[in-house]
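Dear V.,

Thank you for sending over the compound details. I've combined the ligand you provided, coproporphyrinogen III, with the protein sequence from our construct and run the structure prediction for the complex. I'm sharing the raw inputs here so there's no ambiguity about protonation or stereochemistry in the SMILES, which I know was a concern on your side last time.
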Amino acid sequence: MLTQAGDDRRQQYTGIKMAETKKLLRALAGETQDVPPVWLMRQAGRYLPEYRATRAEAGDFLSLCYTSDLAAEVTLQPIRRYGFDAAILFADILLIPDALGADLWFVTGEGPRLSTTTTPADMAKLKGKDDIHDHLAPVYETVRILSRELPEETALIGFAGAPWTVATYMIAGRGTPDQGPAHKLMAEDRATFEALMERLTGATIEYLSKQVEAGAEVVKIFDSWAGSLKGEDFDRYALEPARRITQEMKARFPGLPVIAFPREAGEKYIGFAKATGADCVALDNSIDADWGAANVQADGCVQGNMNPGLMVTGGQALIDETRRIRAAFSGGPHIFNLGHGITPDADPENVTIMLEALRG
Ligand SMILES: Cc1c2[nH]c(c1CCC(=O)O)Cc1[nH]c(c(CCC(=O)O)c1C)Cc1[nH]c(c(CCC(=O)O)c1C)Cc1[nH]c(c(C)c1CCC(=O)O)C2
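Below is the predicted structure of the protein with coproporphyrinogen III bound, written out as structure tokens.
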């Protein structure tokens, strides 16, 4: 059943773009702006003292994700501090495996751990794509709180991990440098690998749909490990799921903007937006901005792509690089962002310096 917010959202997507006042949504609708909208991946995170305080209050990272008022609070913190043009729902891409019934926990200082899914018997233990919503209800509640509390000029981004990236964690039971276990399963038991990809694609569509019904105005698909898929594997397991998710979301919510992030796709960034239907492609910081402008922005909006390391080191290099990236993408629609998440050792003052260089 649709919520009232979801009803309003569907109406909103049927044709009022010309009157859109949110800078982020204008960029996603194809508008070139003198000063681009800006937000940062992982903008709610450990570099902020107020985040660390709220996380301590929650006890641990997963409790923070599932406690709606605290998750909404940390989402709002960087908006209050910096006035970013978008807020991104505070959650994690690994909540989907958790909702499907895989065990998930986080080891402080190391990262996520999950029970592994590598056999038909493991697959049989997972829940169906439609059976995730009770578990994820607190996330939808976070979105509802945010859509009430955000300033009217701030867009709300919902998100999910792409099937391939989420599968790499489910198959290995943890993060891996080269996604070796997932590539191995793909080679040795393609049927199980594809069954997992299919379950994740379906669940992701249902999960994102609930986020939109609760008030998310944009959705972003994070494929952090897309770069380890080469050639035909990239087309089948990165591009095709992104296309299916994007097309189904747009069929359900006409006009909904979609951002795709096939990180480290390299040459495969070319044509990705056209092939999937995504309104914007997020570029990682291995991409030269001029190359991105010529080859990717030529098809529409791009997001990115400053090196997150500059938020640690700062100085004149940060100012120069902010201006260089803004200039490189000034000929078309652009959302200023980093090429990957801001790191815990970033200096919060450097975000202010970046914003002054960008907007000033
Ligand atoms: C691969 C991936 C994950 N999560 C995510 C990705 C894709 C993007 C990327 O490549 O970074 C996405 C993500 N994770 C988080 C968000 C929230 C929204 C945001 O501010 O961007 C988003 C969009 C919060 C988080 N997710 C996590 C944190 C840090 C947890 C903490 O507070 O201890 C945050 C703020 C934990 C997490 N979550 C994940 C890992 C590997 C880790 C551990 C690494 C780390 O500690 O940074 C899985």
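A first observation: The first helix runs from residue 4 to 12.

Warm regards,
I. M.
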